[in-house]
Amino acid sequence: MIELIKITKRYGSIIANDEVCLKVDKGELLTLLGPSGCGKTTTLRCITGHCPPDYGEIFIEGKNVTTLPPNKRKVGMVFQNFALFPHMTVFENIYFPLKIRGMNTKEAADRVYETLNLVQLSGYESHYPRQLSGGQQQRVGLARALVYQPKILLLDEPLSNLDAKFREEMRFEIKELQRRLGITAIYVTHDQEEALALSDKIAIMKEGRIHQVGTPEEIFEKPKTIFVATFIGLSNIIEGAVSAIDPVTLDIGSNLKLTLLYRKEIKIGEKLRVLIRPNDVEFLTDEGEEKHNIFEGTIARVTYLGNKMDYLVDLPSRLVIRVQTDLTSRHNPGDKVKVHLPVNKCKILS
Ligand SMILES: Nc1ncnc2c1ncn2[C@@H]1O[C@H](COP(=O)(O)OP(=O)(O)OP(=O)(O)O)[C@@H](O)[C@H]1O
Ligand SMILES: [Mg+2]
């Protein structure tokens, strides 16, 4: 439905998009996730046609639209800092852009009522924006994009100015609407939780480049780079050099050795970085059968998070491991503990 091929966009010395390649299938919701300034809005503006790329091509439904003006692309967009017209009612806010485009009065009005119904704002036609809550205003913003019945909807941080609880509600409303209408969507956010909850696919972006595209599970379970691993979810990154191959052993300082799953391409002396998620690390009370990856440490910090405990554990050689457990484990700062990093949970990053 949407395909970007090596989209490149510079602003002076800044490369906002650096050979961005992306494919979104029909009916799919892809989130573009990355830190501020990484080029997310620029990517969307290239797709709408508001920002012609310096290089690269854009296809929509198999058709090359790279040089097509925005109004010929049938792409709806909810802008990052959208503003409703304060002196116009909800009805007028949605109706006005249709009139400007020359749609006849009756058809335009019908569409506005239909769209308001879709975003559950029927009855609010004659309210002014200042009489609406933040979430209702967001929905008017959404209605302004949906009123064109776009096949493609681009949403640029549409929930960024809502509080946490309401964001969660709204995000599922948007997802539900997108699925029901069969719209293909790209959703920009820098909130990883939002991305994991909403997406069919996530594209992780940094400094103008896409680092990895995959399902939420793939991105979380098999991050390809250290950036992806640390950007999505909490992570411990352990570095070291390979000192043995069978089993694969990493020297991580102070005589500590980390055992990893066998991989045939690994060579002695090679430097590796390993990811282990805090909720995959365990405290051992009794060693039992475990032989590998047990380290003695001291609890440095304890944080109660309501549904789980979060610990920082000091290991020798200035290694600090973050551990998250359920509420049944209770340790205090200064306690001596044994942490276990299960071999199959230690993932080698490229
Ligand atoms: N019109 C412009 N003129 C000059 N530089 C620009 C322009 N638009 C964007 N940039 C620069 O391009 C880079 C990418 O900007 P973009 O708006 O795409 O980032 P973003 O990922 O959407 O960030 P945010 O999460 O803060 O919205 C930034 O360094 C930004 O300063
Ligand atoms: Mg932006």
From TrEMBL:
GO terms for molecular function: ABC-type polyamine transporter activity; ATP binding; ATP hydrolysis activity. GO terms for biological process: quaternary ammonium group transport. The keyword Amino-acid biosynthesis does not apply. Keywords: ATP-binding, Cell membrane, Membrane, Nucleotide-binding, Translocase, Transport. The gene is potA. The keyword RNA-binding does not apply. Part of the ABC transporter complex PotABCD involved in spermidine/putrescine import. Responsible for energy coupling to the transport system. One of its GO terms (cellular component) is ATP-binding cassette (ABC) transporter complex. It is an enzyme of class 7 (translocase). Belongs to the ABC transporter superfamily. Spermidine/putrescine importer (TC 3.A.1.11.1) family. PROSITE patterns: ABC_TRANSPORTER_1, ABC_TRANSPORTER_2. Its EC number is 7.6.2.11. This is Spermidine/putrescine import ATP-binding protein PotA. Residues 2-232 form the ABC transporter domain. It comes from the Bacteria. PANTHER family: SPERMIDINE/PUTRESCINE IMPORT ATP-BINDING PROTEIN POTA (PTHR42781), SPERMIDINE_PUTRESCINE IMPORT ATP-BINDING PROTEIN POTA (PTHR42781:SF4). The complex is composed of two ATP-binding proteins (PotA), two transmembrane proteins (PotB and PotC) and a solute-binding protein (PotD). Gene3D superfamilies: 2.40.50.100, Nucleic acid-binding proteins (2.40.50.140), P-loop containing nucleotide triphosphate hydrolases (3.40.50.300). SMART domains: AAA (SM00382). It catalyses: ATP + H2O + polyamine-[polyamine-binding protein]Side 1 = ADP + phosphate + polyamineSide 2 + [polyamine-binding protein]Side 1.
